[in-house]
Write a structure and sequence with these properties.
binds uracil, globular, 12% strand, six-stranded mixed sheet
């Protein structure tokens, strides 16, 4: 590990810096930062967009209505929360849950990059179009509309070996549209098949 520090120490150091972060104006509105949580040795890492109301209140990712959808998706994939890592591209809630801005993604994404370097997941699941665009670009994959690329594995290389990027629609879409809920669960079953093929579950 970097500088002889353990994964836990590296993540604690990151969390301290995020808690004090003022790289973009979102710090003015936050109640709590949401660094992320889960298994630091996870094979599968989920990357959401940004905290919402309940995440900002509790300082934990996906604990509101979208989180309940994510929990059901995890079950469908044969995974448990404590086995995976869940983070976001943006660590502070955008006011009124508006979309993250380009400059906010630019300011905050180095923290996600650090998390990926610490955890070294084999499978990265970006949730929603902003995280999908960020993750695909980061791993040298061509970003495309999420409606075209969701639910499929994309092989990429990383400094620690090959990884799979498997884009999902954002779980919140299931709250408004039944057909999207069906698409999400179909993708969860496809991801489960990929994980099982590789012996990850
Ligand atoms: N939506 C996200 O993208 N991330 C969260 O943590 C919660 C809701």
């Amino acid at each position: 590990m970097r500088g002889g520090l353990s994964k836990e120490e590296l993540m604690e150091d990151l969390a301290r810096r995020v808690a004090e972060c003022r790289r973009c104006p979102l710090f003015k509105h936050r109640r709590r930062v949401v660094v992320g949580e889960g298994n630091l040795n996870a094979l599968v890492m989920f990357v959401g967009e940004a905290p919402g109301y309940y995440e900002d209140l509790k300082g934990r990712p996906f604990v509101g209505a979208a989180g309940r959808v994510l929990d059901r998706l995890l079950e469908e994939m044969g995974l448990r929360r404590r086995e995976v890592y869940i983070g976001n591209v943006i660590k502070c809630r955008p006011p009124g849950n508006r979309d993250p801005r380009e400059e906010e993604i630019e300011a905050c994404s180095p923290y996600l990059d650090e998390q990926l370097e610490i955890i070294k997941p084999r499978v990265i699941v970006p949730l929603g179009r902003f995280s999908t665009r960020y993750v695909m670009t980061k791993f040298g994959l061509r970003p495309a509309p999420i409606s075209r690329i969701h639910g499929r594995p994309y092989e990429a290389s990383s400094p620690y070996g090959s990884v799979i990027v498997f884009p999902f629609y954002h779980p919140a879409v299931a709250l408004y549209r039944k057909v999207m809920e069906e698409a999400l669960f179909e993708d969860a079953r496809r991801l489960r098949a990929v994980l099982s093929e590789r012996g990850y579950i």
